[in-house]
């Protein structure tokens, strides 16, 4: 006999059907307890697993609920995934407490729409949907990219939601600062903005690497985080650059929050001639990323942090390395950088220097907006910038064309 506690009579049929389907239960006794004793799962979001057959689901509850469970399937929830739960206590005076749950959905068919519902096996979320990542490298991922999106002044959000409802994107890349003051109001601001991060993954004909630039600026959390990330990063680049891997996924794209280059009128790292992210530890010039990325032939670098949009000419060591005068982005001789940090936040814009524009800066904009990227095939990558201020107009676009990928000469 299985005793089933149901908090809401409206859930009885759905839970019974899911249990009978998943576990072939024959004898079930249903009882009810007040709804106030349970908290609805919230802050539900998904992120890709390490291959197209997996999807990670993360959610939160405000009371102690164990038995993290997701029901999922194609059209019906006939599969089950068990997860884990971690207690989180905010550092504010109220010690706001919640429970973070995560489960991995496995055995997915690539490129397929699934329905899913998550909770504690009794009180479950509404039925949601996602499309699993397509398999292989022979397809053209469509991606939205942005950083510095806050709970206050999130101007780009409505347009991004509309784009997503139209099915315009296969994935969204967030380039850091996904919220501001997450600890404010005893952690309740953080409850309203939730995200996860990945370090290394493949999508279509691209290998994408997400790094933490913050390690260079918060050494009091540990001196070894910089060299450890550098070692991990170089090992990952070596693997991605192997001929057999580069033939399958020729594009290598990196994402980090703080840029190597920018022409904003502030005193951020990217405005310095010897940026920490670019050249590494001061004076010793150890663990800098520009030389490493150049060595392994990184094609595109995506940044944020500056609340503006800036596209660079192909650049290395502050020198423009265009493919040619007439076609600068055809077979460029250095990586192409994009800074896309204008999605909208409480800190508004970061203005540009107006006196002398650096020779490596190609396009600049203070419009609120976000970027779109399509990795068309092994040789073509398309990028455009959307202005929310101009009602969704594309204010910048470029096609990067590479006949071959690899270390720059």
From TrEMBL:
InterPro entries: Calcineurin-like_PHP, Metallo-depent_PP-like, MPP_PAP, PAPs_C, PAPs_N, Purple_acid_Pase-like_N. Pfam families: Metallophos, Metallophos_C, Pur_ac_phosph_N. Its EC number is 3.1.3.2. Gene3D superfamilies: 3.60.21.10, Purple acid phosphatase-like, N-terminal. Belongs to the metallophosphoesterase superfamily. Purple acid phosphatase family. PANTHER family: ACID PHOSPHATASE TYPE 7, PURPLE ACID PHOSPHATASE. Residues 334-397 form the Purple acid phosphatase C-terminal domain. One of its GO terms (molecular function) is metal ion binding. Keywords: Glycoprotein, Hydrolase, Signal. It comes from the Eukaryota. Residues 216-309 form the Calcineurin-like phosphoesterase domain. Residues 41-130 form the Purple acid phosphatase N-terminal domain. It catalyses: a phosphate monoester + H2O = an alcohol + phosphate. SUPFAM superfamilies: Metallo-dependent phosphatases, Purple acid phosphatase, N-terminal domain. The keyword Nucleotide-binding does not apply. This is Purple acid phosphatase.
């Amino acid at each position: 006999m299985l005793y089933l506690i149901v908090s809401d009579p409206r859930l009885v049929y759905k839970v019974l059907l899911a249990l009978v389907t998943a576990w072939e239960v024959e004898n079930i006794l249903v009882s009810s307890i007040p709804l106030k004793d349970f908290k609805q799962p919230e802050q539900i979001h998904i992120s890709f697993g390490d291959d197209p057959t997996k999807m990670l689901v993360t959610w939160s509850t405000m009371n102690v609920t164990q038995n993290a469970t997701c029901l999922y399937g194609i059209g019906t929830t006939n599969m089950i995934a068990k997860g884990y739960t971690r207690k989180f206590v905010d550092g504010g005076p109220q010690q706001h407490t919640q429970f973070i749950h995560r489960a991995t959905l496995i055995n997915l068919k690539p490129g397929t729409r699934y329905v899913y519902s998550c909770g504690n096996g009794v009180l479950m979320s509404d039925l949601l949907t996602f499309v699993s990542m397509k398999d292989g490298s022979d397809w053209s991922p469509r991606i939205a990219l942005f950083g510095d999106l806050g709970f206050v002044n999130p101007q780009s959000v409505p347009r991004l939601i509309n784009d997503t409802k139209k099915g315009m994107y296969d994935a969204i890349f967030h380039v850091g600062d996904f919220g501001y003051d997450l600890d404010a109001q005893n952690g309740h601001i953080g409850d309203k903005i939730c995200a996860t991060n990945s370090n290394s993954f493949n999508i279509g004909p691209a290998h994408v690497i997400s790094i933490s630039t913050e390690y260079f600026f918060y050494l009091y959390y540990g001196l070894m985080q910089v060299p450890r990330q550098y070692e991990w990063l170089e090992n990952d680049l070596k693997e991605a650059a192997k001929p057999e891997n580069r033939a399958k996924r020729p594009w290598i794209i990196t994402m980090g929050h703080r840029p190597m280059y920018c022409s904003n009128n502030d005193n951020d790292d990217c405005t310095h001639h010897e940026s920490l992210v670019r050249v590494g530890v001061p004076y010793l010039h150890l663990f800098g990323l520009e030389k490493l990325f150049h060595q392994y032939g990184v094609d595109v670098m995506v940044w944020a942090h500056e609340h503006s949009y800036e596209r660079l000419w192909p650049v290395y060591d502050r020198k423009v390395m265009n493919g040619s005068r007439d076609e600068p982005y055809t077979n460029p001789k250095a990586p192409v950088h994009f800074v896309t940090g204008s999605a909208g936040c409480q800190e508004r814009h970061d203005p540009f220097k107006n006196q002398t524009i650096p020779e490596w800066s190609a396009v600049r904009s203070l419009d609120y907006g976000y970027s779109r990227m399509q990795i068309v095939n092994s040789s073509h990558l398309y990028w455009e910038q959307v202005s929310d201020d101009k009602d969704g107009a594309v204010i910048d676009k470029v096609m990067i064309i590479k006949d071959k990928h690899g270390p720059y000469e």
